[in-house]
Amino acid sequence: MNILFLGAPGCGKGTQSKIIIKEFGIPQISTGDLLREEIKGGSNLGKEIQDIMSTGKFVSDDLVLSLVSKKLGQDECKEGFILDGYPRNISQAKSLDSLFIEKNINLEYVFLIDVPFETLIERCTGRLLCTTCDYIGNMDRGEKVGDKCERDNCEPGKLYQREDDKAETVKNRLNVYQEQTAPIIDFYASKGILHKMIGGNDPSILSSKILEIVKS
Ligand code: AMP
Fold this sequence. Notes:
Blueprint: E1 2-6, H1 13-24, E2 28-30, H2 31-40, H3 44-53, H4 61-72, E3 81-84, H5 90-103, E4 109-114, H6 117-126, E5 127-130, E6 136-138, E7 159-160, H7 167-181, H8 184-189, E8 194-198, H9 203-215
Parallel strand pairs: 1-3, 1-4, 2-3, 4-8
Antiparallel strand pairs: 5-6, 5-7
Helix pairs in contact: 1-9, 2-3, 6-7
């Protein structure tokens, strides 16, 4: 099963992907995560990526395409995959189409998670991640930077804020989404594979609706 999640930063693409992973055992391909891995590696390329990400702008289309292409070629993606955060503009959507044709891949579902921008700003600026596991916390639950991760056995996991979740960068990321990513909604709607979902509430309600669609 091949799925793509579309939506503005903080809409819950990552959370929904993780639920689908548990259900179907297919891997998630998150370009944001792949880029952050490159940054962690400390290469010159990683430093360039970090500079771009800290402004909220996009890294180059060629770079993300090569990361995605490499991932899609791996055995773990043979039974399907979840794309999260790619494509993010029309040019990336067209390149992905060509890549799918080349690799004989059929994209079955595109889920757009629609959440009001005010909610997204609150979510992103309050979001806290764990240094060790995939736990996602939030300051509005009283959690703070430096707190120990809530999950059992997650020692030495501590909570931190992503550099690009600071208020000014979040606003830039939402502007970039509006200008560059929103136009690809029509691109997928015209292919008849787009499902518009209302997000922003309990993630389990949204995931049960998504699972109902993919299992039908
Ligand atoms: P995310 O973790 O998906 O919110 O992505 C974090 C940042 O990584 C974005 O604000 C961009 O700077 C960069 N990024 C992630 N995916 C892409 C992409 N498909 N194209 C260009 N830049 C990306």
